């Protein structure tokens, strides 16, 4: 066994696969440039760091559970939509996330609320934030099961440490009182350290009806709106404009 193979075995044993993958190329570069041992070692550590950063982002993207369409590079600006390209670029800088601001994205079905929220969530992950995409049903079910299921408890702990949580389709369906209280307690526990992007097709005034509790709805909105940008998207449904048919015309 030559030295290269021995080094490769040690890399695999100690799980430094970034070094293993880049060792030969980095060694040849170092020999050609005649760098010092310290510089060579530093380059290996840099390769390992880059490898681990990529792996961490891939894991985060997997656990984030983003919908398939979440690349804002493909965003198509539409006149009168309520969000222009300059505003989108400002949102994508994520300064609001560092300031723990929330966002409520409102509008009828099909105008791009979920796409915008998922795209910003994807941007946050690419920049190293802990960000997750969940529907309100996902959150309610997790809160209902967390005291009985290890997976739900793990999910709960994960979300309470998040930098950003997207909650899609908030108040799409009525929620019973116990689940509504659990949802409020979750928001109340996390809103000071976690940013939320909420998508909804209901006006805030309608939340009380969906929760069947005006006091609870007011308290929930008070926390979400304290540091918040409200974005109202308008226009025709993308899905209806691009509706598919079985028959070609």
Report on the structure:
The structure is a single chain. Helix 2 runs antiparallel to helix 3 and helix 7 crosses helix 9. Strands 2-3-4-1-5 form a five-stranded parallel β-sheet. It contains twelve helices and five strands. The radius of gyration is 23 Å and the shape is elongated. The chain folds into two domains: 62 residues, no CATH class; 170 residues, Rossmann fold (3-Layer(aba) Sandwich). The protein is of the alpha/beta class and 249 residues long. It starts with a helix and ends in an 8-residue tail after the last helix.
Backbone structural class: alpha/beta
Q: Helical proportion?
A: 55-70%
Count of individual helical segments: 12
Terminal CA distance reads 66 Å
Element-by-element helix/strand order: HHHHHEHEHHEHEHHEH
Descriptive terms for the model:
single chain; 249 residues; alpha/beta; Rossmann fold; five-stranded parallel sheet; 57% helix; elongated
Task: Give a brief outline of the structure.
This protein is an alpha/beta fold and 249 residues long. Helices cover 57% and strands 10% of the residues.
Detail the topology: elements first, then pairings.
Layout: H1 3-13, H2 17-33, H3 37-64, H4 85-92, H5 95-98, E1 102-106, H6 113-126, E2 131-135, H7 136-145, H8 150-160, E3 164-168, H9 177-190, E4 195-200, H10 204-211, H11 214-225, E5 228-232, H12 238-241
Parallel strand pairs: 1-4, 1-5, 2-3, 3-4
């Amino acid at each position: 066994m030559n030295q290269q193979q021995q080094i490769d075995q040690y890399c695999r044993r100690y799980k430094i696969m970034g070094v293993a993958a880049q060792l030969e190329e980095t060694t040849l570069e170092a020999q050609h440039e005649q760098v010092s041992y310290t510089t060579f070692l530093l380059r290996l550590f840099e390769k390992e760091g880059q490898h681990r950063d990529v792996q961490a982002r891939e894991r985060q993207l997997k656990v984030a559970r983003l919908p398939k369409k979440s690349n804002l590079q493909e965003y198509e600006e539409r006149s009168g939509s309520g969000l222009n390209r300059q505003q989108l670029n400002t949102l994508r800088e994520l300064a609001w996330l560092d300031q723990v601001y929330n966002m409520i994205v409102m509008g009828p079905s099909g105008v791009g609320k979920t796409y915008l929220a998922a795209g910003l969530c994807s941007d946050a992950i690419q920049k190293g934030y802990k960000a997750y995409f969940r529907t309100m049903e996902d959150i309610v079910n997790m809160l209902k099961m967390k005291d009985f299921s290890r997976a739900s408890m793990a999910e709960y702990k994960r979300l309470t440490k998040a930098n950003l949580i997207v909650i899609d389709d908030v108040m799409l369906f009525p929620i019973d009182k116990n689940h509504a209280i659990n949802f409020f307690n979750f928001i109340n526990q996390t809103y000071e350290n976690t940013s939320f992007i909420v998508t909804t097709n209901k006006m805030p005034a309608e939340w009380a009806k969906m929760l069947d509790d005006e006091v609870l709805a007011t308290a929930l909105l008070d926390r979400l709106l304290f540091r918040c940008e409200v974005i109202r998207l308008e226009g025709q449904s993308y899905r209806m404009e691009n509706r598919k048919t079985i028959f070609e015309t």
